[in-house]
Recover the amino acids of this structure.
């Protein structure tokens, strides 16, 4: 693979985007690639818009993904998918949790949450997979496993083996949550 | 063996492999994890100290004793630590001393965007700048060698994208290190007659370091297409490589202070057009110009924010990406205080006092934004108290009333001296200590008020009430900020007293694992008149749906602040 592959993970602080990027990074590493991840810590984690990047290939220079560079966007929330659309390449893929979390300007009536985001995304020359990952996560045992459900969907669209993902989950997640997270992964993977 | 390490984690690994035995720091994004990862190694004594000046002094003392020692801080922390570090540049070291400083281009989590290379220059201290995790590890180890070889502290300059990016690192074994302490008064006692010869030594050392910079492996040339030459360092090197690839040749500087001269001139002679790509200040560019090398720099690349690969591709190759967007307003999503955060109740009450609020650095700085809009100023750690004092003196007894607000960790950092000043000089204003039993914003580090050390061992608790009384504050009281009306009443009473007063608003952070959370509340839709008063406190768990206020049960932790606000008793427990 000559070209570096770029993945953006975006969502709302507290949704578990960091774990998702760590998981993807670990799978890329075991796949024998050079890999770089960039994460957001600090202030934005308090319910702000958060983004992390995963880049893998033969040799990766920059740790960040810029506009029109992403092959895949993994969006944990609809508004954040809309916000990061400019970062997607034409023909790219958005995997989207159809959850809606109102930001403070919307809560206090200073701004409107855009209507019909999914439909508008489908009008673009890109692939869109929208799922209720929160529901699947709850069915797997915890609302907090939304990240792993989305990883399950992503896994189908990357070249790594299913077992590599399961192994990475085992290594990244604490023992007591392992089974639940593997269930969450499977529920995304079968879609 | 290769491991995928966070930049900060790789620095800590560098400490470990270099045989470091003492690390002392104060948390600060994006530097915090350096110290947290160091604490995972049993071989390294690691501590949180109250501020960066103290931690730098601890590291200096350990170095004088003969240990390899380190401290890590954010860029503005270096301002606090600069006093001891500028003189440590004169005294030099015994065991190697590495000072990590993490800049924040783009201001992701800071109050300014200063370039710490300025401190390296004026303190005449060498500074290395890694450009990925792998170099974080190797440069840190090299830092200790340079420190001992040239008898100097060594800065490692990081930035948000280096500190908080992961990359593959080759890890190796630890070596053990300890020099013997030998008394050396002329070196380690800095006073006029000893400092004069040490200054001569410092100047000579900088000449020797400049010579080292000419040939050291970490300043390296990568020749590709010679039409475009790029001089760069740190993460900017990665952006340049990403944008220009083999269309350009690079002089990649691993040491950013002092800078080489011959190496730059030689590289300049090989390139048709020469660019300097550096984030923030024009340090390399000015150095080139001073030495007669013509470069293109800040006329293309801003002094402000991060330099990104798309900007470089645009400015140098005129390559513009094709961008898709939804063609509509995407509302911003600023960070907010968490649902159940006790600062929310406190700042609601502070706003209601009508006083000017002299704020400080911490999660509570988020109260400055709407809807609370309850903070007037925020300058630096500790300034809340001292600036409130100045404001109070300027306004006089009959002028605008001011309240200083500071967190528990920040108070221990640098609020205490401001309060001593206020007492000593006859202040008559209120200081609020927002005591949430942790250092919240940087990710819940312990501090002198929490009763635990960095390694989670029991520690004496700094008693804030006793401390305030002992320095002479005549009025000290404790309130529960979740009780809005009682907090407001207490604040009003203290302001009206006209005396120096401290109100400690005490309630542990909801994100601490020992904090007991309540069950989610709900809104009785029949009783709700949608008067929107409950929206005034800006809780992310209170949203609106179908013309009513609704509580998001996934977020609400039952703190009850909103219950006291609702005049229609519409907010209650779930049946």
């Amino acid at each position: 693979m000559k070209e570096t592959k770029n993945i953006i993970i975006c969502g709302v602080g507290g949704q578990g985007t960091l774990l998702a990027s760590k998981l993807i990074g670990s799978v890329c590493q075991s796949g024998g690639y050079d890999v770089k991840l960039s994460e957001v810590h600090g202030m934005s984690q308090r319910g702000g818009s958060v983004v992390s990047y995963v880049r893998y290939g033969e040799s990766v220079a920059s740790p960040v993904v810029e506009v029109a560079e992403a092959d895949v966007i993994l969006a944990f929330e609809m508004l954040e998918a809309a916000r990061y659309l400019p970062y997607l390449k034409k023909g790219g893929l958005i995997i989207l949790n159809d959850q809606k979390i109102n930001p403070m300007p919307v809560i206090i009536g200073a701004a409107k949450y855009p209507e019909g985001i999914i439909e508008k995304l489908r009008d673009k020359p890109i692939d869109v997979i929208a799922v209720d990952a929160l529901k699947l996560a709850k069915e797997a045992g915890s609302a907090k496993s939304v990240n792993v459900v989305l990883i399950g969907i992503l896994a189908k669209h990357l070249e790594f083996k299913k077992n590599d993902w399961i192994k990475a989950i085992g290594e990244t997640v604490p023992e007591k949550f392992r089974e639940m997270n593997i269930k969450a992964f499977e529920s995304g993977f079968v879609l | 063996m290769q491991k995928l390490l966070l930049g900060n984690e790789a620095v800590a690994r560098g400490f470990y492999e270099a045989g470091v035995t003492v690390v002392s720091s104060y948390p600060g994004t994006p530097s915090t994890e350096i110290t947290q990862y160091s604490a995972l190694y049993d071989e390294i004594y690691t501590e949180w100290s109250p501020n960066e000046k103290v931690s730098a002094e601890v590291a200096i003392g350990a170095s004088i004793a003969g240990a390899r020692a380190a401290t890590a801080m954010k860029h503005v922390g270096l301002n606090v630590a600069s006093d001891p570090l500028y003189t440590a540049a004169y005294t030099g070291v015994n065991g190697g001393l590495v000072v990590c400083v993490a800049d924040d281009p783009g201001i992701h989590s800071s109050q300014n965007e200063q370039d710490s290379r300025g401190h390296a220059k004026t303190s005449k201290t060498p500074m290395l700048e890694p450009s990925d995790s792998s170099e974080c590890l190797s440069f840190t180890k090299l830092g200790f060698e340079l420190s001992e070889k040239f008898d100097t502290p060594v800065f490692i300059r990081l930035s948000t994208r280096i500190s908080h990016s992961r990359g593959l690192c080759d890890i190796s074994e630890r070596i053990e290190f300890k020099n013997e302490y030998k008394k050396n008064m002329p070196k380690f006692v800095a006073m006029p007659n000893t400092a004069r010869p040490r200054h001569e030594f410092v100047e000579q050392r900088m000449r020797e370091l400049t010579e080292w910079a000419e040939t050291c492996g970490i300043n390296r040339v990568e020749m590709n297409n010679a039409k475009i030459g790029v001089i760069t360092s740190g993460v900017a090197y990665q952006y340049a490589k990403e944008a220009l690839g083999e269309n350009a040749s690079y002089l990649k500087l691993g040491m950013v202070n002092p800078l080489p001269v011959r190496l730059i001139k030689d590289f300049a002679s090989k390139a048709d057009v020469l660019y300097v790509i550096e984030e923030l200040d024009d340090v390399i560019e000015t150095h080139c110009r001073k030495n007669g090398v013509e470069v293109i720099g800040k006329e293309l690349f801003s002094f402000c924010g991060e330099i990104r690969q798309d900007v470089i591709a645009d400015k140098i190759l005129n390559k513009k990406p094709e961008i898709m967007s939804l063609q509509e307003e995407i509302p911003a999503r600023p960070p907010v205080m968490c649902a159940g955060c006790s600062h929310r109740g406190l700042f609601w009450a502070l706003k209601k006092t009508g006083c000017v609020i002299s704020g400080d650095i911490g999660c509570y700085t988020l109260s400055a934004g709407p809807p609370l809009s309850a903070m007037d100023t925020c300058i630096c750690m500790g300034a809340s108290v001292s600036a409130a004092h100045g404001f109070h003196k300027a306004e006089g007894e009959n002028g605008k009333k001011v309240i200083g607000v500071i967190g528990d960790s920040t108070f221990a950092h640098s609020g205490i001296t401001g309060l001593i000043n206020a007492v000593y000089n006859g202040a008559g204003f209120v200081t609020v200590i927002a005591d949430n039993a942790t250092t919240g914003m940087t990710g819940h580090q312990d501090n002198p008020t929490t009763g635990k050390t960095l390694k989670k061992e029991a520690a004496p608790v700094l008693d804030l009430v006793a401390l305030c009384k002992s320095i002479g504050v005549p009025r000290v009281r404790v309130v529960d900020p979740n009780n809005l009306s009682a907090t407001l009443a207490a604040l009003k009473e203290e302001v009206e007293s006209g005396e120096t007063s401290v109100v400690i608003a005490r309630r542990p952070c909801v994100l601490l694992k020992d904090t007991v959370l309540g069950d989610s509340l709900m809104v009785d839709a029949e009783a709700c008149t949608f008067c929107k008063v409950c929206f005034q406190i800006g809780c992310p768990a209170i949203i609106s749906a179908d013309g009513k206020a609704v509580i998001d049960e996934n977020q609400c932790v039952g703190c009850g602040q909103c219950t006291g606000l609702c005049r229609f008793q519409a907010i209650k427990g779930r049946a």
User: Anything to note?
Assistant: Chain B touches chain A through 57 residues (CB under 8 Å). Chain B has four domains: 2-213, 219-317, 342-506, 521-573. The first helix of chain B runs from residue 7 to 17. DSSP finds 19 helices and 22 strands in chain B.
